[in-house]
Write a structure and sequence with these properties.
The protein has about 80 residues and is an alpha+beta fold. It has a single domain (about 15-80), classed as CBS-domain. It has helices at about 5-10, 25-35, 45-50, 55-65, and strands at about 15, 35-40, 50-55. A 3-stranded mixed beta sheet has the order 1-2-3. The longest helix is centred in the N-terminal third of the chain and has 11 residues, at about 25-35.
Length: about 80
C-alpha cells in the first residue's frame, strides 16, 4: 500500500466543530466520523466561516490528564489548549 492508496481510501472530507463545543461533543463527532481530529471554525456560514485551528485526540487526552473531570464543562474557546496553532 502506498501513501496515495491511503489518501485515496481516506477521502478528502474535512469535519469541523465550532469553538463553543464541549469536549464531549467533539468526542462524539470524532467517533461518529471515525476521524482523529476536527478543524475548529468560527461559525458564520459557508462564505464567512473562519478557520481557528484544529483539535485532535491527543489534545483531548492531554487536557483530561491535566484537568480530570472538567473536560465536559468548559467550551473549547475557554481552554488553555492552543488550538489556534
Amino acid at each position: 500500500m502506498t501513501l496515495q492508496d491511503i489518501l485515496t481510501a481516506k477521502g478528502s472530507r474535512v469535519y469541523t466543530t465550532d469553538p463553543s463545543a464541549s469536549l464531549a461533543e467533539v468526542v462524539r463527532r470524532l467517533v461518529e466520523h471515525r476521524v482523529g481530529s476536527l478543524v475548529v471554525c468560527q461559525p458564520g456560514g459557508p462564505e464567512a466561516e473562519r478557520l481557528l485551528g484544529i483539535i485532535t485526540e491527543r489534545d483531548i487526552l492531554f487536557y483530561e490528564r491535566l484537568h480530570p473531570g472538567l473536560a465536559d464543562l468548559i467550551p473549547l474557546h475557554l481552554r488553555p489548549i492552543d488550538f489556534h496553532a
